Structures are given as C-alpha cells and as structure tokens.
Amino acid sequence: MQPFELKTPASLEDAIKELPSERSYTAPQPIAGGQDILTVMKDDIEAPASLVEIGHLLSSEISEEPGGLTLGAGATIQDIADHEGVRSGFTALAEAAASVASPQIRSQGTLGGNLNQRPRCPYYRHSAVSCFKRGGNVCLAEFGFNKYAAILGGGPSYFSHPSDLATALMALGASVVIVGPEGERTVPIADYYVGPEEALDRETVLEAYEVVTKITVPRPASGARTTYYKFKERDSYDFALGAAAISLRVEAGTIAEARVVLGGVAPRPWHSPETEAALVGKPMNAETWKSAGEAAVADAVPLDMNGYKVHLVKGILHRALESLA
Ligand SMILES: Cc1cc2nc3c(=O)[nH]c(=O)nc-3n(C[C@H](O)[C@H](O)[C@H](O)COP(=O)(O)OP(=O)(O)OC[C@H]3O[C@@H](n4cnc5c(N)ncnc54)[C@H](O)[C@@H]3O)c2cc1C
After folding, report:
1. From first to last of its 325 residues, what are the pLDDT tens digits of the chain?
2. CB-ligand 1 contact for 73 (6 Å cutoff)
3. Is 167 in the pocket of ligand 1 (CB under 6 A)?
C-alpha cells in the first residue's frame, strides 16, 4: 500500500474542493467507513495520493415521510437493517442490509460506501494482474476462473456487481442524490450504474469530484410487498452468488404489478423486465414462478464454471416469490 495523506475537511463544500476533476490511479478519493477503499489500495488497484474523509460530514439520518424514505449516505448498513420503518415499509431494503457481510462491517460500512464499492472479481483484486478494468486488454475471468462471474450483461469484462443494497434499492425505485461543485443533482438508481460495455474504469455515473449525500425511496404502492432473497456460498458472511429483489402487488390472486432486480449475476444490478412480464397478469402460483425463473435466464450466457447460476436464479426467484405469497 502506498503512503497517502488523510484530509479531514470541515464541510462537505471543502471536501468537494479536495476532489479531483478526473479519475486516475493516484487521484484523491473520498473515504467514509473505509471498509472497501483501504482494501482497494492494499490490492494496488488504485493509490490515491490523498483520502478525503467525508464520513463525519454526511447525514446518517433515516427519515420517513408519507411519500417515502430519505436515507443519509452516512447511515451505516446496520442502521438500515435495524430501522423499524425500513423493516416494515421497505422490507427488501432491510433484508438486503441484514444480509451484508458481518456485524462489524455492517456497523462500520456506510450506505454511500456500499453503493460505490468496487467489484470483487479475484483477478481485478489481484495486484499482479492487468485486466480490462486495470488498464489491460483482457478479461481473465472470461476464460479463467469464472465461478463468481456474470451470466447476464457481461463483456468485455465479466465481474458481478457486489452491492446488496443497490439491488434492493433498484427494485424499490430509489434515487441517488449527488453533490458536486455545481450543486446537487438527482439520478434514478436505475441509471446510476454503468456496465463494462459503457466504461471499464468505473461502475457508476458518479464523477470523481462528486459525492453521494442521500438516497430517496418512494413508498411502495398500497398493498405491495417487497423482499430480498440472497444465496451466498458461506453462511456466515459473503457476497451474493445470486440474489433477487422483488416488489409485487397482487390483486384478487392476480399479480397486478411487479418489479424484479437480480443481484450477483451481472456487472450491475440487473433489472429484469422479462421476469416482470412473465409475472404480471398471472396467478400467484408455482407455475407462474417457474415461468418467471425461465424468463429471467432466457438471455443468460454462462461461462465455463458458472452455469450453476442459471439454476440458482430460477431457485431464488421461486423462493422469493413463494415467500411473498
Ligand atoms: C469481508 C467483506 C464482506 C463483504 N460482504 C458484503 C456483502 O455481502 N454485501 C455487500 O453489499 N457488501 C459487502 N461488503 C462490502 C461492504 O459492505 C463495503 O465495503 C462497505 O459498505 C463500504 O462502505 P464504507 O463506508 O466502508 O466505504 P469506503 O470504503 O469508505 O468507500 C468505498 C468506496 O465508495 C466511495 N464512497 C464512499 N462514500 C461515498 C459517498 N458518500 N459518495 C461517493 N463515493 C463514496 C469511496 O471513495 C470508495 O471508492 C463486504 C466487505 C468485506 C470487507
């Protein structure tokens, strides 16, 4: 790990002034809980000359209004998992938060940091490797060890997106509030993540000189139920091998509205209109859940070692939908 300077600005405005105009290997970066950025630096993916402390400047408040929820980007993942209003009204988000890592990481990691964490692909995280995402000209996961890689939306790089919160927030129709030198802008989380076909040096539309300050989540429609179902390899703590965040409204036994986002299977949280189309207008029964699973993976392109994810997605959707029933 390279030496770096830790800057502790007195205001968010001062923090933004410390951030660079463009990304680069040595460009300054924000640090909140430090659970990812320090690992990124230890793995020599990036070596920022300075880290700009923002954790103490961000709101950690979680507030409920009739129209929805506002979460400060400084809220810890544990705060979100424990919040009564989130658990009752935005269940998918609370379940996603509770599924993240270990209690220590959930208590230190922030919402803003979780949404902006970098991919976990073992090649990307290996200091001796030069892959597409580290300025090289190959994705070693495509033909190498690809057990954890993407089956949907992959190419030219095949990493899978790591954030459980992002997947749940996308199913809930959340928006990301961003502050930069020019002021504030709001981006629907559905447009926040960019895939490797669009950019290889980043995973979001966030500019190097911007920070996420809060997330807003509209209240699910009356009668809607939401859930997050995650499958992980190690039961104690782990990233998703596959996950599904679902928001569903059923009227008189028929599915009236559905929003489905898959996690752990694509380079970004994977919104699946095909799965939604297989659900809406159908009865809430096992046959429908089976068709939904098949629709979800119809376009999947598994690599040598991750064909199991095709079956996993079907199973996850079945269980998630069954639990909502
Ligand atoms: C062993 C382990 C297991 C894990 N398991 C899971 C898991 O199962 N599911 C899961 O979702 N995550 C998992 N994680 C990831 C973990 O949740 C994140 O590392 C953590 O949430 C990052 O939050 P932080 O506040 O510590 O971020 P930091 O490390 O401080 O920052 C992470 C990145 O986000 C940027 N950043 C931070 N805050 C902001 C902001 N407000 N605006 C803009 N950019 C910002 C930083 O510049 C940096 O690039 C795991 C991590 C570990 C180490």
Report:
1. 999 999 999 999 999 999 999 999 999 999 999 999 999 999 999 999 999 999 999 999 999 999 999 999 999 999 999 999 999 999 999 999 999 999 999 999 999 999 999 999 999 999 898 999 999 999 999 999 999 999 999 999 999 999 999 999 999 999 999 999 999 999 999 999 999 999 999 999 999 999 999 999 999 999 999 999 999 998 878 999 999 999 999 999 999 999 999 999 999 999 999 999 999 999 999 999 999 999 999 999 999 999 999 999 999 999 999 999 9
2. yes
3. no
In the chain, what are the domain boundaries? 62-116+162-218, 224-324
Tokens, residue 239: 């990233």
The predicted-structure confidence for 44-66, as pLDDT tens digits, reads as follows: 999 999 999 999 999 999 999 99
Atom number in ligand 1 closest to CA 35: 26
Q: Which of 39, 57, 116, 209 to mutate to test the pocket of ligand 1 (most atoms within 8 A of CB)?
A: 116
In CATH terms, is domain 62-116+162-218 a member of 3.40.109.10? no
Verify whether ligand 1 is closer than 6 Å to residue 114 (CB atom): yes
Q: Where are the alpha helices (DSSP H) in the chain?
A: 12-18, 37-42, 77-82, 84-89, 91-98, 103-108, 111-115, 140-143, 164-171, 273-279, 286-296, 308-324
Nearest-atom index, ligand 1, CA of 99 = 8
The minimum-distance atom of ligand 1 relative to the CA of 213 is 41
30 pocket-lining for ligand 1 (C-beta < 6 Å):
yes
Q: Which atom of ligand 1 is nearest to the CA of 115?
A: 34
Nearest CA to ligand 1 atom 16: 114
Residue pair 94/87 in contact (Cβ under 8 Å)? The answer is yes
Count CB neighbours of 305 within 10 A: 14
- Euclidean distance between CA atoms 254 and 256, whole angstroms: 6
Q: Residue of the nearest CA to atom 53 in ligand 1?
A: 35
* Alpha-carbon distances of 240 from 124, 165, 312, rounded to whole Å: 17, 11, 11
224-324: what fold? Enolase-like; domain 1 (3.30.390)
